[in-house]
């Protein structure tokens, strides 16, 4: 181990025992991370990236992994070097969370649902810093402020399910940074974050790394983040290291075909300039006359609020204005993208449209049927025409059902298929999203994060719906699989006339898949129009901030700006507060901007 290296992974081999024999998840992997350095590990879903991270912390054994060969040498704060591959559980427990911290890929499964988020941050501080309860609570609130969570004192007392996906991820990052670790392992840490918060979190991690000489192992599929954060890049495939190089060299002159394939699949903002409709990756954008779309879904003056209750008697004292007078329409065969910061109301809008969350007022009309007036069998029957792909694939899947049962379940419930026809339908869908027949009998925990998301997409397509609400459908996927899934969604739209409400924080993907774009902020749409006009001529200051914060997958051209960190305004208002209805100015053909 070199004098300046904090971590030295040497010829690591990790094996999982299965009913079909041993599976080698990591095979002969070697790399090192020096003090203050950021090393990114990239590769397709299932390439062994996360298994490597779990093995470093000694967590692989809890999911059936075994380090068969190699060493993981870590230099501790007192300069002693310990081999984590052979260290006992007592040593590992002292290191985890204190000297090596980890941000996991799925925040909801990382947080304990029965404890408040403040208690979970404070617990780490009390355990490793021997602080009393009051000091730990004070530091926890400060950490919530540092990761830009609004109203940190109130969030301190909330439970994970009360926060949005992006806020939960920020809580996980706060926990990881609580003890100023020597090594931070970040496994897709910005997956659930919109571009503005992503920019601030990455800036925070970079600043902390520089101030504390902290090393960072960054596992990600976002090549824009790699270009911005990493000093060196390790490319993995099928458990092996394919290529390792300095970031600039790798982006400019990738040696291996697989690395070139990864870089070619990266969505780049501006690549669809002037295009009239969505285009698959690898397909030249078309610039012909934009197609017209007959109305399928119409949403008018949608309002969704959540009550805030206090005291022993749980008095209703305020409301969270999650969706505040939102109106839009989606044509048959059209994609409307809904973008905005975490907590702005995007996901709640999608769930309100499907009646998974009951709106307070407004109308939602699908093919002439007013959904807010349907109930019982009528609503159940109508739900065959509308499906959702959730943001968190692990939470969306039943851990007791196999992949086959997960995909077949909607068909069984609605009595669409049975017997061999049912199996043929499921196998066809599984193959279509890039999974294989051999994986049909696996359970969700046996899939990687990206594979689980593909399973969710297959399940959403089973009933051949007319409308799919896609809530961050490719956020958990690496770039090559992301490109395949986006291509699949576009192909299905062209073949079947599917309509999508595409909720995402990835502006480059939004530009690729959408016909029109609606930008949300604080529960309201602030700008809406054709993709080309919103991306090419953004009029609202918030839209311009979002676009300027998009990371550029080119290390020689960093992202244009990092939005200043500051607390978001609160969406909570007293009972009885009714804001004035929004007023829009038409600044171009079908291009609307919220009036000041």
Automatic annotation (TrEMBL):
Domain ABC transporter: 9-263, 297-547
GO biological process terms on file: peptide transport; transmembrane transport
Root EC class: translocase
UniProt key word Lipoprotein: no
Topology of this chain in the membrane: Peripheral membrane protein
Catalytic activity: glutathione(out) + ATP + H2O = glutathione(in) + ADP + phosphate + H(+)
Subcellular location: Cell inner membrane
GO MF terms held by the record: ATP binding; ATP hydrolysis activity
EC number: 7.4.2.10
UniProt cross-references to PROSITE patterns, sorted A to Z: ABC_TRANSPORTER_1, ABC_TRANSPORTER_2
Keyword Membrane: yes
Any one Gene Ontology cellular component term annotated for this protein: plasma membrane
Keywords in alphabetical order: ATP-binding, Cell inner membrane, Cell membrane, Hydrolase, Membrane, Nucleotide-binding, Repeat, Translocase, Transport
Similarity comment: Belongs to the ABC transporter superfamily. Glutathione importer (TC 3.A.1.5.11) family.
Described function: Part of the ABC transporter complex GsiABCD involved in glutathione import. Responsible for energy coupling to the transport system.
Subunit structure: The complex is composed of two ATP-binding proteins (GsiA), two transmembrane proteins (GsiC and GsiD) and a solute-binding protein (GsiB).
Official protein name in the record: Glutathione import ATP-binding protein GsiA
Provenance organism: Devosia insulae DS-56
């Amino acid at each position: 181990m070199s004098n300046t290296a904090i971590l030295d992974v040497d010829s690591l081999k990790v094996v999982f025992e299965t009913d079909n024999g041993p599976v080698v998840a990591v095979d002969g992997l070697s790399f090192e991370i020096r003090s203050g350095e950021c090393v990114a590990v990239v590769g397709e879903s299932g390439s062994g990236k996360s298994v490597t991270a779990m093995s470093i912390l000694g967590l692989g054994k809890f999911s059936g992994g075994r380090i068969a060969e190699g060493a993981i040498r870590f230099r501790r704060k007192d300069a002693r070097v310990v081999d984590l591959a052979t260290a006992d559980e007592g040593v590992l427990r002292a290191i985890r969370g204190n000297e090596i911290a980890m941000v996991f890929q799925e925040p909801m499964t990382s947080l304990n649902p029965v404890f408040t988020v403040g208690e979970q941050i404070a617990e780490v501080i009390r355990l490793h810093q021997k602080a009393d309860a009051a000091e730990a609570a004070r530091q926890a609130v400060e950490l919530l402020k540092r990761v830009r969570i609004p109203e940190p004192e109130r969030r301190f007392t909330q439970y994970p399910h009360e926060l949005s996906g992006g806020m939960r991820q920020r809580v996980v990052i706060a926990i990881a940074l609580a003890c100023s670790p020597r090594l931070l392992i970040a496994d897709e840490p910005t997956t659930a974050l919109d571009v503005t918060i992503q920019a601030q979190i990455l800036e925070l991690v970079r600043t902390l790394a520089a101030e504390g000489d902290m090393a960072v192992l960054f596992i990600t599929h976002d090549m824009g983040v790699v270009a911005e954060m990493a000093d060196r890049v390790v490319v993995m495939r099928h458990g092996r290291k394919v290529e390792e190089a300095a970031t600039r060299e790798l982006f400019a002159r990738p040696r291996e075909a697989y690395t070139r394939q990864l870089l070619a699949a990266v969505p780049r903002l501006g690549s669809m300039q002037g295009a009239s409709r969505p285009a698959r990756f690898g397909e030249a954008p078309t610039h012909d006359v934009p197609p017209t779309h007959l109305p399928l879904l119409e949403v008018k003056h949608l309002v969704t609020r959540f009550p805030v209750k206090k005291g022993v008697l749980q008095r209703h004292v305020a409301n969270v204005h999650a969706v505040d007078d939102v109106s839009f329409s989606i044509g048959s065969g059209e994609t409307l993208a809904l973008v905005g910061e975490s907590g702005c109301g995007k996901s709640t809008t999608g769930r309100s449209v499907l009646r998974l969350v009951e709106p307070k007022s407004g109308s939602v009309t699908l093919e002439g049927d007013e959904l807010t007036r349907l109930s019982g069998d009528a609503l159940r029957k109508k739900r065959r025409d509308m499906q959702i792909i959730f943001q968190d694939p692990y939470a969306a899947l039943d851990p007791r059902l196999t992949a086959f049962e997960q995909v077949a379940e909607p068909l069984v419930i609605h009595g669409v298929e049975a017997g061999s026809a049912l199996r043929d339908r499921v196998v066809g869908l599984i193959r279509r999203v890039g999974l294989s027949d051999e994986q049909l009998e696996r359970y969700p925990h046996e899939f990687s994060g990206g594979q689980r998301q593909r399973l969710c997409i297959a399940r959403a397509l089973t009933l051949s719906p007319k409308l799919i609400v896609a809530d961050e459908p490719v956020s958990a996927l690496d770039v090559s699989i992301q490109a395949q899934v986006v291509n699949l969604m576009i192909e299905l739209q062209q073949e079947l006339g599917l309509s999508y409400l595409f909720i995402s924080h990835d502006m480059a993907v939004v530009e690729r898949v959408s016909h029109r774009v609606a930008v949300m902020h604080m529960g309201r749409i602030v700008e809406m129009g054709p993709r080309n006009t919103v991306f090419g001529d953004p009029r609202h200051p918030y839209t311009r901030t979002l676009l300027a914060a998009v990371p550029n997958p080119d290390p020689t051209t960093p992202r244009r700006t990092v939005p200043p960190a500051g607390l978001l305004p609160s969406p909570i208002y007293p009972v009885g507060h009714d804001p004035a209805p929004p007023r829009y100015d038409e600044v171009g053909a079908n291009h609307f901007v919220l009036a000041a």
